[in-house]
Design a protein that fits this description.
Strand order of the largest sheet: 1-2-3-8-7-6
Number of domains: 2
Number of strands: 15
Largest sheet: 6 strands, antiparallel, barrel
Structural class: alpha+beta
Helix content: 10-25%
Shape: elongated
Order of helices and strands: HEHEEEEEEEEEHEEEEEH
Strand content: over 45%
CATH superfamily of the largest domain: predicted glycosyltransferase like domains
Number of helices: 4
CATH topology of the largest domain: Thrombin, subunit H
Length: 242
């Protein structure tokens, strides 16, 4: 079953399964990054130990994790338990045993793709806000002053970007950016709602904003998702040949 969809070298995200509600929220959300080392059977595999800041993360034996695999044919998920830790041919290994069936990952729009893309933004005008909130046909006003930003991750549901200015949470913004499709750069103009904004501790004067798309057409969302997974496939192919 595993070898049909997953191959050595595929990337994995791991997130601990907590049975108790007493676990801290940040612990529940913490994600570790690994890759498939070898597939041993239909329900056992070896993965590389996660590394953070050049240090091995010794995840405890017998703990259970949600695994998200970036397979050649798409995303797959399951839960698995760590059964052993060891070193093999200078590679630090976690032995995993599946505790659920492998299944296709359905929530594609929530997968975030790390990137560095230029973007421009501005607050929506009052008439634009009225049209968007009332789901009326509208055209974004052209020629207004725009601020420069950098998108650092993007998904089918929203994005995170850095800027030298602060937008308040709940603000509705015009967001303009290009996505590369082969040799063509396609422009996207979308509306986003600010979920949060914070000044970076080690970069005074730089603000991180998290935004969700607002009133986005299904076709546009699907294009962004398709772009993300095409870029991920390219990255995985490159890594396998390095």
């Amino acid at each position: 079953m595993l070898s049909k969809f997953i191959t050595p070298g595929d990337k994995i995200d791991l997130c601990a399964v907590y049975k108790s509600s007493a676990a801290k929220a940040d612990e529940k959300k913490r994600t570790y990054y690994s890759s498939v080392h070898d597939i041993l059977s239909s329900d056992t595999l070896e993965i590389t130990m996660p590394i953070e800041k050049n240090k091995l993360i010794l995840l405890p034996v017998e703990c259970e994790y949600n695994l998200l695999f970036y397979g050649e044919s798409g995303l797959y998920e399951c839960t698995a338990r760590i059964t052993d830790r060891y070193k093999s041919d200078n590679v630090y290994i976690l032995a995993m045993e599946l505790t659920s069936n492998l299944k296709k990952y359905q929530r594609r729009e929530y997968y975030r793709y790390s990137c560095s893309l230029d973007m421009v933004s501005r607050h929506l005008e009052e008439e634009e806000i009225w049209a968007v909130e009332n789901k009326m046909p509208y055209a974004l006003t052209q020629g207004l002053p725009l601020k420069k930003n950098v998108i650092v991750d993007i998904s089918g549901g929203g994005m995170r970007f850095l800027s030298k200015h602060k937008y308040e949470p709940e603000s509705l913004l015009y967001l303009g950016f290009y996505l590369p499709w082969g040799e063509v750069q396609k422009r996207y103009e979308v509306v986003g709602k600010v979920l949060s904004s914070r000044e970076l501790e080690k970069r005074e004067g730089t603000w991180e904003h998290r935004v969700e798309y607002y009133g986005m057409e299904k076709e546009t969302r699907e294009e962004i998702i398709r772009f993300i997974f095409e870029e991920e496939r390219k990255s995985r192919r490159k890594e396998k040949f390095v």
